[in-house]
Amino acid sequence: MGADRIAQAFAACAKEGRAAFVGYLMADDPTPDISLGNIQALAAAGADVIELGAPFTDPMADGVAIQKAAQRALAAGGSLSGTLEIARRFRIVNTSTPLIVMGYANPIHRMGFSEFARRAAEAGVDGVITVDLPPEEDAPLRTELARNGLAVIRLATPTTTEGRMARVADGAAGFVYYVSVAGVTGAGVGAEADIAAGVNRARKASNLPVAVGFGVRTPDQAAVFARIADGVVVGSALVEEVRAAVESGQPESSVNRISVVAEALSNAISSARTLRSVH
Amino acid sequence: MTAAPRPNTWSQWPDANGRFGEFGGRYVAETLMPLVLDLEAEYARAKADPAFDAEFQDLLKNYVGRPSPMYFAERLTEHFGGAKIYFKREELNHTGAHKINNCVGQVLLARRMGKTRIIAETGAGQHGVATATVCARFGLPCVVFMGETDVERQKPNVFRMRLLGAEVMPVSSGTGTLKDAMNEALRDWVTNVANTFYVIGTVAGPHPYPMLVRDFQSVIGREAKQQILEAEGRLPDALVACIGGGSNAIGLFHPFLEDEGVRMIGVEASGFGVETGKHAASLSGGQPGILHGNRTYLLQDENGQITDAHSISAGLDYPGIGPEHSFLHETGRAEYRTCTDAEALEAFQLCSRLEGIIPALESAHALARTGEIAKELGPDGLIVVNLSGRGDKDIFSVAKHLGMEI
Ligand SMILES: Cc1ncc(COP(=O)(O)O)c(C=O)c1O
Question: In angstroms, what is the span from residue B316 Cα to ligand 1's centroid?
Fold first, then answer.
């Protein structure tokens, strides 16, 4: 449960000598039922951890792909409550894959930090990433989450200096999410050497696993990051499959599309360090 | 013996964490956090550097045209038949509004920090024009984010910005208004952290912005205090200003905060009326929340989604308000009233006819509440209204609302 489920997932990957595949999808995109099908497909295709985006009207850290996903979700009646409902339904059929809610502060603030923490725990959520709650501002939420056994997952970025990394690590739980590039989600990807240096800064400051995200789109890119970090986060590339399905007029086809893309990513991440083929 | 703790003063805020009571703070993504901490440190050094202030004052005087006059609005006073009404004439500043005071200050800070590219958000285009102007003056490339809807309704200002050499980026995300422009500016900033300085146009954003914008705008209140003492030999009974994010209001109010006898009245835009849900009155019709870097009153639904603001005035069309105003509201130090689109249109025409001054639609919101305040105070009363900008930019949309062709 909670932070423990996250730790177990990363430990299992480490034991297999591979990085964890962390997949992101927006809750309620394009509808609650299809969204649930999509995250189940993502888990079945090999995602070790799932990040469930909570839609927000003003996602200022997100690029166009996730902005549009949030708008589709909101148009379908999505909300933070809806996100927790997706989590609850997922937990009924899957008790092993950690679920992280990723979103913005205002919907959580509006629900109330303690109410949110209680309901998230009840729904089977294990950790929370709040993009606009930096370490300096997350204490009120962190306290409530900790009371319910949930992890606050902190972001570290290329602008997080060695000195500041200690601040990020202090109070972090689950894993450290290293943002590969100064930018919004779905933007270009940073240089490999810079990312490796950033991951090392994070590792020096924290004993938690370090996952790298932002800008990872292809299996080849995922493989590169899988050699550097303990986990690889893919978001926009998966969300784009939902967009393509919606635009094709067959939104339910997103389940198959996500299975295909996620399997390729999962295989690339699993085999990245062994360099030999699975067969 | 230990000294008694210093009593709280109104002007001591924000605290070390950038808070005004429960409002403010630094709610930004980690990528931006080191930058806002840097900005805070650099601003503290600039404030302690007499050379910085000397350059700021010189530009305010010779480039902006300060001090702006304090004008006795005799016919408006007569018309309302109550307190004496003075205008603090920010509309006479270079570029036609108070916005440039802040732009000069922030661009000087950017230069001090070695930043080589300026970005800004704008609603009515006044802040965009002011930023583009100061950037032209200093040879800095300038990118202004502006919602698509606003690009359409503020064409003259879009042209002005381009004439001044700025790049205007129409923003189509969300509803294409000021909040979306601010989101896009934040996205640009997070992507171009090394060389870019974000010039925020009002007392919003993460700490230290609400503080430094206020400090740069406080020249309004400092001048006003001296001018009204010279003209009337006493402090005013009330200060009145319109509120978009709240920069012209806090600029006027702040130097008077310790003068307990001076009432402060901010006027929010209530569009079609607060009860219709189509308005921009964050204090009168919103709840505390977190957006664009600070905790403050916001227009939002029961799920914490930000709702669209509406005002006839693009400069007031924002679903939030500066955190210091939320604080002054909750503590009761300042009062906040509202003004509808229709009332603003009426005041716009009244001021034009009676005083020969065409006010900005934003400022017309403050003027619309001035009559009743003048009556409340009676003939012995004394009011200073912030005439934050001139209305040339608004003549097209006003004509349309009045059903006239130009
Ligand atoms: C003339 C004028 N007054 C007021 C405002 C509102 O901003 P603030 O509340 O920050 O003064 C604007 C904004 O564009 C403006 O142009």
Answer: 7
